[in-house]
Amino acid sequence: MNSIIKESLERSMSYSTYRSLVKRLVEDNSNSGIEKSESLAEFTKLNDKRMNRWDKTLKISDEAQRRLNNFEENITWLVITESWCGDAAHIVPVLYKVAELININFRVVLRDENLDLMDMFLTNGASAVPKLIMIDNVSGEVLNTYGPRPTEATQMVIDYKEKHGAITVEFKEELQHWYNNNKGQNIVDDLAAMLCKLEPSICQQN
Question: Using N-to-C axis directions, what is the helix angle for 151-164 and 185-198, rounded to 10°?
């Protein structure tokens, strides 16, 4: 296993510990990461509410469960995130729910505390989070990565940038509405497609 990934895993936390960390940050009117500001603290507060909602309401369809339940590979999902990231607030709870469903070891690290790790998994040269790293527990090999956004949201961003040149506040609000309306299903579908490549049996319809 790559030494940077190994060290990051050793520093990683469970999902429940991460959620407790975010709640403590909210109580302290603070945020994770190197930069501290009132705006990032407010985003952290908002994101805690978003994650609370997804933790309580997220549903995985019976069809998706039938497909995912066939997955038996021995892997770990290591997620890079920060408390203030709006995309992460919608995505990380879904990642955890899928991992929990099929008994995948799920670990979380903060980006700014693991910059060497982040530098290994940049998105178009940017330190974008959340980023999911799929690791084979036997070989230590990185099997795949996912993020920082699901496929439909990624295409929305690409289309908007092509038309307007840059992301605006209005578009960010539109993207939040998309997450709320999609209810995590695009993420679940993306993950099922990725896992299908690792274990083709989950592609079979039951």
Answer: 120
